[in-house]
Amino acid sequence: MSQNQHSVPQQPRPSGGHVTGRVVNLNSDRLCVSPKRDHKSENYEDLQMEFNPHVFGSLEQYLPPHVLNLSREVKVRYMRNILLRYFPENDRNRIQKLREYRLKIILNYPPLHREIYTMDAENFFTPSFLRAIKENTEASFRSIMAEPSTGIYTFEMLQPQFCKKLMSEVDSFERWVRGTKLRIMRPSAMNKHGVVLEDFGLETMLDRFMSDIIHPISRVFYSEFGGSSLDSHHGFVVEYGISKDVELGRFLQLVEFGRCFVDAISWIGSQNCSSPVSNSNINQSDQNKRNLSSVAFLGRRTKCEPQNSSEINREVSLNVCLGKEFSGGEVFFQGVRCEEHVLSIAQPGEIFNYSHVPGHAILHPGRQRHGARPTTSGNRMNLIIWCRSSTFRELKKYQRDFPSWCGECKRKKERARLSLMVSQQELLKREI
Ligand SMILES: [Zn+2]
Predict the structure, then answer these.
(1) How far is the CA of 223 from the centre of ligand 1 (A)?
(2) What is the tally of structural domains in the chain?
(3) What separation in Å is there between the alpha carbon of 252 and the centre of ligand 1?
(4) What number of other Cβ atoms are within 10 A of residue 401's Cβ?
(5) Domain closes at, from 87, 114, 137
(6) Residue 50 sits in which domain range?
(7) Does the reported pTM lie above 0.90?
């Protein structure tokens, strides 16, 4: 059956019963434990809902037999009803607003370099980097990377031509934003001169960037941080300089007073305090809407809401300098910490400084505390991609401490072990 033959409502009723003459009790909707693997799921790509259409395609094989052969409309309603039980209303509203916001931009912004909106590895990456990725082994990655501090990797990555195109695309988008007077969401509270790439059509390219490029490396180096199960991304380009984002230097004071700064903290919930989408009357039929897939990073907010300020919102972070003339802007690192120990003092071996080189990348765990020193002259642009693993986050809920990667948890555990040893020795002495 073709998609056009279906009449699926954009927002089906959350509950209800009578459909095509049959009564379905949506309050007792259940899925089967085992999928019906020989069942061919229908195509749901045309759906415009709060859930990714692919979720419906995957879920269909788990439908009970009495629902499996009903109309697509009934199945959509049935599956949506189940999904709603697992998805709080606030999150759904937030995602819907973000979807509308992106759609509005994508339908109106004319890209300058269309060729960078689709992954083209041969033209994006340097030949040596591509060879290592194609070989896909720890040895091949290490052959092109330096590890100046434990778990932090630096390497040459992007071709100068691609860097130039991405920078001019960002400039073009900023000009368009100024011209249309659209109020856009910035990547974080610290970046008033930055743009979120997923917001203007680069989401599909970033999907491939994460799955084909970052994932193979993080699978090898960051398995303890969910590096094998990255499933969403937040990609942005920021510009630093005298007339741009120089504020980062302020945060150095926190470090100098013995406290450490993690830029992710400011990112959580730091978006504009009201939805920038004033007109949601969007042409749903445009082909560009297909560019909108699942909303990466559900934590991204369009409204001011209570937030957990200690949550760190990514597992793996890639930072690539795109270029321009500049001096200063070094990145400093202060060691990996869990949320509870994010403000603990850095040990001497954990401190590391990095100076940007255009086209070169620095890859590190998202929980590696870091900040940037001020760009003292000129301007520079950086591409930053944060990747997240929902599996890691789910598992993390069941853990109380993280001695395998948090420097402070590890020290705490070691102190407890030593204290136990001393107590045992004292007891033994008394018995003698
Ligand atoms: Zn810890």
Answers:
(1) 18
(2) 3
(3) 22
(4) 14
(5) 87
(6) 3-87
(7) no
Distance between Cα 332 and ligand 1 center (Å):
20
| CA–CA gap between residue 46 and residue 8 (Å, rounded) | 9
Are residues 28 and 115 located together in one domain of the fold? no
Q: What are phi and psi of 147, to 5 degrees?
A: -120, 75
CA separation for the pair 259, 254 (Å, rounded): 5
Whole-number pLDDT of residue 189: 66
Do the beta carbons of residue 315 and residue 226 sit within 8 Å?
yes
Q: Give yes or no: residues 289 and 340 share one domain.
A: yes
Q: What is the mean pLDDT of each run of 10 residues along the chain (432 residues)?
A: 39 41 56 87 87 86 91 92 82 86 96 97 98 97 96 98 98 96 83 89 96 97 93 92 53 32 31 32 33 32 34 88 86 91 90 93 94 83 94 85 92 92 87 71
CA of 333 to the centre of ligand 1 (A): 16
Residue 270 shares a structural domain with residue 217: yes
For 277, half-sphere exposure in the C-beta direction (CA atoms, 13 angstrom radius) is 21
**Residue 347 and residue 211 share a domain:** yes
User: What's the gap in Å between 224 CA and the centre of ligand 1?
Assistant: 14
Please state the length of the chain: 432
pLDDT of residue 191: 67
Angle among Cα 334, 340, 342 to the nearest 5 degrees reads 20
Residues 220 and 272 reside in one and the same domain? yes
